[in-house]
Amino acid sequence: MNEGVDNSRITKIISALLKRAMGYKDEEIIEEYQLEGDEMKIIKKKVTTKLIPPDLSASKLLLDYFKFEPTEKYENMTDIELDAEAERLYSEYQKIKEQNQMVGLPKKIDEE
To answer: Given phi > 0 = left and psi -120 to 50 = alpha, else beta, which region is 83?
Structure first.
């Protein structure tokens, strides 16, 4: 690792890549205003939830960063089995994240 880059920045990058690799929901809020007297009032508000699909490029970057070597175990899994394994790994990641918070390591980008 580059010694000039602090750990919190690396943690933020890894968290952002993980979020992108796993896919996520994003809310878009559009508000229309109208001048009433001396103040602007919201006359219309539209909230749209977008589902951002998992990004294969982000997954590859993470796998390269952590030096993941594909094994037969994963190559022979069905899509359902791979989804279950991804959920298990994500759960494991969440546990590690909680442990890191207990010992005072930097928070991840999705917690700010």
So the answer is: alpha
